[in-house]
Amino acid sequence: MSWASWSEFIAMGGQGAYVWSAFVMCAVALALEPWLLALRRRNIVGYLRNGARRD
Amino acid sequence: MPMSISASLRYAAPQAFYPLAGRLAPWFAAAAALAAAAGLYVAFFVAPTDAQQGEVYRIIFVHVPAAWMSMFIYVVMAFWAAIGLALNTRLSFMLAHALAPTGALFAFLALWTGAIWGKPTWGTWWVWDARLTSELILLFLYLGYVALNAAIDDPRRADRACALLALAGAVNVPVIYYSVQWWNTLHQGASVSLTRAPSMAGTMLTGMILMAAAFWMYSIAMALARVRCVILEREQESAWAEAQFGGELQARPV
Question: Cβ of A12 and B226 within 8 Å?
Fold first, then answer.
């Protein structure tokens, strides 16, 4: 599939709003999950690091 | 090979699996990125325009892999729940816990991309047909699993309650898969099945397989990263967990 121009690629034959909202939601969701996991990890690692003060 | 089986059983201990998961996760994440790059290239620059649907059909490259993963992750989650109940291995329950949020994510994405695809092709975002409704139930099962786990304070009781929910809900997976055959659904039948040759263009299938591989590798990477969090949270009172981060060393008075 070769697109004549960048704007034609974005337009997706007039159905760009459907195509891109599907793909963008996937991209957002699949970026959000590792980010939330990194926060969760920072939380528990920080807790374990402060073990001295807890004891 | 009984030697290697007994050697790998060593990793049934959360403490032993923790560093292994940490070593494996980046490789699965890298594989996911590579497969996604190749899959998106095929999806947008190789696969032709669909004769009937035009360009909107390209949603298939995320919709079908997301739907596949939402069902597959549930089966794997129910498998670990069953192993946990049968053998009372703590790591099995932890793996099931680690899979649930990723499964919920893919169930949500399957529904979201499906609704967006349904509007231009069926004329509606949503219809209560058997395929869509059973997939929605799958999302609720995942969310119920996560909520149940969070609601029970005693982790060992939470493990068992969640495992029972996962096993009971497993009956929904074949219902989703066969719903398009058992009932008269607006949703189309499978274009790719285990028993027939696929009824779609070769490049479309290639793109879909690549995206499915990307989502699969991503899911493994996320499950491994999350199970590491679960292990640390569960074992936070143990010496080895604190020693990972120097907590134990500081705790000892000099």
Answer: no
